[in-house]
Amino acid sequence: MSHYLLSVYDTENQVGGAPSTPEDRQAFMRRVIALEEEMDKAGAFVFGGALHGPDAATVVRGGTGLDKVTTDGPFAEGKEHIGGFYIIDAEDLDEALEWATKVVEAINHAIEVRPFRATGRLEDGH
C-alpha cells in the first residue's frame, strides 16, 4: 500500500459547489461522513481534515534567536490555498484516483491527487 494526498483547494475562502443553506450543509456532511465511513471500512482512510483560512496561518522562517522571523498570513500569497485534505492508503495511483472520484462526488469540488511520502511515524500501523 502507498499513501496519497487528496487536496481540496479553496479560492479566496470560497469552495466551488460549497453548500449555502443549512439543508445543503446537512446533506453535504452526510455525504462526507458516508464517504469517510466507506474509506475506513475499506482500510483506505488514514487521516483527513479541513484547514482554517489562510488568514489564520503563521509562517516561521530562519533559525533560532535573532534569525527567526514569524509573519502572519500564508506562505505564498495567492487566490488559491489548501482548504482540506485526506491521506489515504491505496494499492496504486488508479485506486487513489477511484477514491478521488468519490471525494469529488461527495464534495462537488475538484481535488488534487499526489503520492505522499511519510517521513515520520503514523499511528495505527499505517
TrEMBL record:
Q: Which InterPro entries match?
A: Dimeric_a/b-barrel (IPR011008), YCII (IPR005545)
**From which domain of life does this come?**
Bacteria
Q: Which Gene3D superfamilies match?
A: Dimeric alpha+beta barrel (3.30.70.1060)
SUPFAM superfamilies xref list: Dimeric alpha+beta barrel
To which protein family does this belong? Belongs to the YciI family.
What protein is this chain from? YCII-related domain-containing protein
Ranges for domain YCII-related come to 4-114
Source organism per entry reads: Kribbella pittospori
